[in-house]
Write a structure and sequence with these properties.
The chain is of the alpha/beta class and 222 residues long. The chain has helices spanning 16-33, 46-61, 66-69, 99-116, 148-160, 189-192, 196-207, and strands spanning 76-81, 88-94, 120-126, 165-172, 178-184, 211-214.
Length: 222
């Protein structure tokens, strides 16, 4: 049997160029999808796809980051408004086991991501699980790193990395509520000060706790 097609109709089978374009698009999608692996096999949303694409692009084009980014991926990304300001932040969660590798390139990576997502502050936080207190009364049934306090302290360290925390103080408001005041290493003031409101907003979003950041006033040299 001979199948006759009307003049000008599209071919039933894609031509070689179409197949090649489709294959290239599929390869690009596969490569990009390797930059985000969500927990429990969940599908990334559109914004997370855009962050994964940015990481993929940096790996492909930035010679300074290429080799370090090859084996790294994220688990989630979320954009939030920083309460009381006009600032926006992108919270990027990464696997805990990859945190040290991210720290190795964090300053360069954050700088490049903030260029791609202009006007937004990028912070990188490791995934950590909080375990509830044991019901059997055995204190050693729960690792200390899985307590609420330990996880919140670790989130704090992640947020301000590589700046060191040099002091903490709890302040009580008139209404009885608490605010944690965190003092950061003054040597990083120039590179960190613009992000202090972002750090506080992200910490509040992740933990529900109020916090403020500042640099200790250095004593005048004699």
């Amino acid at each position: 049997h001979v199948l006759l097609l009307p003049t000008g109709s599209a071919p039933l089978f894609p031509c070689g160029d179409s197949l090649q374009v489709h294959a290239s698009a599929k390869m690009a999608f596969t490569a990009r999808s390797k930059k985000i692996v969500k927990e429990r096999g969940a599908e990334p949303d559109e914004f997370e796809e855009s962050v994964a694409q940015a990481l993929f692009d940096l790996e492909a084009t930035n010679t300074d980051l290429k080799s370090d980014l090859r084996d790294l991926y994220i688990t989630s990304a979320k954009e939030i408004d920083i309460h009381g300001t006009t600032r926006k932040a992108i919270i990027v969660h990464v696997p805990f086991r990859l945190l040290k590798a991210f720290h190795k390139i964090q300053q360069r990576l954050v700088r490049e991501l903030e260029k791609k997502f202009s006007g937004k502050d990028v912070v990188i936080v490791a995934n950590r699980r909080i375990m509830p207190p044991p019901t059997n009364g055995k204190a050693n049934a729960r690792p200390r790193t899985r307590t609420l306090t330990a996880v919140h302290d670790a989130i704090l360290d992640d947020l301000v990395y590589p700046t060191e925390i040099v002091g903490k103080r709890t302040r009580y408001r008139v209404d009885g509520s608490k605010v944690l005041k965190v003092f950061l290493d003054p040597k990083d003031r120039n590179s960190t000060e613009y992000k202090l409101e972002t750090f506080a907003g992200v910490y509040k979003k992740l933990t529900g706790k109020d916090i403020s950041f500042e640099f200790p006033v250095s004593e005048a040299t004699a």
